[in-house]
Structures are given as C-alpha cells and as structure tokens.
Amino acid sequence: MHPSGSTVIPLDVALPLLSGDMEALVALDLHDDAIGDQGSAQLAVALGRNRSLAKLEIWRSHVSSRGATALAEALKGRSEGLKELNMSSNQDVGDEGATAIADMLVSNASLETLWMLSVGLTSKGVVALAESLRHNNTLRLLQLSDNPLIDDEGATAMGRMLAANTTFEKLWFGGTS
Question: Alpha helices, DSSP H only, in 76-146?
Fold first, then answer.
C-alpha cells in the first residue's frame, strides 16, 4: 500500500479495470511499474474509453516523449474524466512530450493538476506549456520543479501566462536555472 492509501497495481491488472465497466475506479497508481512507452500506449487506449478515472500516477515509470504523446492524444478534447496526472521522474518525456501535453491542454477541460517534476524539460517545453495555459481555464496546479535546464525564457513565458490566466492557482518552479 502506498502512503497515500492507494494500492499500487501492475499495468496488466489495471488495463482490464479501465477498459471494463469499472465506474468505481477513480484513482490508479502505476508508479515504479516500468510501463514504458508500450504500456503508455495501452493505457492511452483504455483512457480513451474511460471517463471515471480521476487520478493517474505514472511517475518513475520509464515513460518517454512517445508515451507522453500517446497519453496526450487520448486526453485531447476531454471535458470529463481525468483531473490529476502525475508523470514526474520520467526524464525522457522532455520537450517533445511537454509539447504534446501542451497541445492537449488547449482542448482539454478536465485536467486540473499536472505533475511534471524532473521530466527533462528545457525552456522550449515550458514555453509550449505556458502558451497553451494562456487559453486553458481548467488546469489550476502545475509542478515543474527539478527541471534544471529551464532558464529565464521559460520563467518569463510562465510569468506572462500567470498574468493572462486568472483561474490558475499554483505553479511550482524550484530547482531550475
């Protein structure tokens, strides 16, 4: 059992639960499960059909930009379902994955909290996220700490976003340049 009270289960057990009639399944913790890109793609297919899952934890699960892109595609245009996504400590998400997430945020109206600590971002990915969040009134909390290659350009872009987005509540930005 995880300290949060959730049970960590492997992906092969989780996929049938997401794909079936499990309306009661509201949180799924797959951290440290090494789901990788193949697992992310399978998870994306299941998420495309599931509207009850509110929280997904895939931190430290070997997800790269390809996996992040698959998940972002599944969440595009959603107005219900997933409210919190934690994809922290997946160093290979990088700017390409962040750009896919940013593209998804333009049309997603369900995600409220996004954790992207230590995912290999530079200012390029942060600028993409900031631009999308200028037009997203749903996301309230964004965690971008421990991405040391974020410099003044990324911080300035986030500052502009905060000035334009009046519904955004909290940005974590520690451990950057």
Answer: 94-107, 123-133
